[in-house]
Design a protein that fits this description.
Ferritin, elongated, mainly alpha, about 80% helix, 8 helices, about 170 residues
């Protein structure tokens, strides 16, 4: 099912999606990437290029579109879970999602802002585990929400390998 179909099928009261909440969920996720990026822009431009990187490092221009798309998918997944009426299960799922979103933002601040490659590796390893926990929690509520996080899991897995190699090389 496409993202658009998931949104169309996400009916709170039978009248259709709650667009303000959906937009808010996507915006919260996008801001989790935008704010740390702004705070670390100088480090990304000056420190990061000086590091030795593995051959599988993507070109810099790839990161913006990939992360923008991943945050969009995360926002839709968040919305699908938020709209459920699953009580305590929903509260736990939203809390775990919040934890992974904080870890996501923290990685940028640690890796780039503090220029701590190993610290970034620790944060991203915990983030990877928290994404898995989020997916498990989301799957109990809406399998589509969990499925929307699969590309995020794959990308963070790749980013973990990249972070490890950068640490090893530097």
């Amino acid at each position: 099912m496409s993202v658009i179909e998931s949104i169309r099928n996400a009916r709170d009261d039978g009248t259709g999606p709650n667009w303000p909440v959906l937009v808010g969920a996507v915006l919260v996720c996008e801001l989790a990437g935008i704010v740390p990026s702004i705070l670390t822009a100088n480090d990304v431009a000056t420190w990061y290029p000086t590091l030795a990187k593995p051959a599988f490092t993507p070109p810099s221009w790839v990161f913006g579109p990939v992360w923008t798309t991943l945050y969009l998918l995360m926002g839709v997944a968040l919305y699908l879970v938020w709209r459920s009426d699953r009580g305590r299960i929903r509260q736990v799922a939203l809390a775990v999602f919040g934890a992974q979103l904080v870890l996501n933002a923290a990685w940028t601040l640690v890796f780039f802002g503090s220029q701590a490659i190993f610290g970034g590796l620790v944060v991203i390893a915990v983030l990877l585990a928290t994404i898995l926990a989020t997916m498990a929690a989301f799957a109990r509520i809406d399998r589509r929400a969990a499925a929307l996080l699969v590309p995020y899991l794959v990308w963070v897995g790749f980013a973990t390998a990249l972070n490890y190699e950068i640490w090893r090389l530097n």
